[in-house]
Amino acid sequence: LFKESRINNPAGKIMLAEEPASESTKDQPAGEGIIQDGRWMPEIDPLTIRHSGKANVTFADGHSGAVKPEFGKNPANSRPDL
Fold first, then answer.
1. Confidence of residue 55 (pLDDT cuts 50, 70, 90)
2. Which of 10, 17, 25, 46 lies 20 to 30 Å (CA to CA) from residue 59?
């Protein structure tokens, strides 16, 4: 839907995200539901916490890294136009 050249701050935009895969407290933030569809939806679905409280994500510029679940709740970190 967006050309890479039109993505604001591609190094800070989540393109692929790791979601919780189980109901384990080692896998998902407290109070968050388990993901059933395998498709991460920004601002709706939680990121996993299975890697020392962080989730692995790939950013729109192609690099990957570990982020805290709160990072996925901020629209500026996933919406290409922000």
1. very high
2. 25
Cβ atoms within 10 A of the Cβ of 46, count? 23
Instruction: Identify the residue whose tokens are 């919780």.
Output: 20
The type of residue at 64 is S
Does this model's pTM top 0.85? My answer is no
Rg (C-alpha) for the chain, rounded Å, is 13
Alpha carbons within 13 angstroms on the beta-carbon side of residue 58 total 4
Which are the contacts of 1, defined by CB distance < 8 A and separation ≥ 6? Answer: 80
16 closest CA partner among 67, 70, 81, 52: 67
